[in-house]
Specification:
With 60 residues, the chain is of the alpha+beta class. It has one helix spanning 10-16; strands at 28-29, 36-37, 48-49, 52-53. It has a domain at 22-60. The model has no long low-confidence stretch (mean pLDDT 92).
Length: 60
Amino acid sequence: MGVPKKKTTRMKKGHRRSHHHVTPNAYVKCDNCGELKLPHVVCPSCGYYKKVQVIETTEF
């Protein structure tokens, strides 16, 4: 059985988990309306993707 002989220190644990941090999402401006959106995704506010209307949006 693989049982550790000694306790893993906080420093060792921290070094091992150094890449487990959360990275913020990258946002870009929509070419059509200027709203922030995720890259390579249809704009949820206007429905445009690469200056072409892909989905119809309803105005309230």
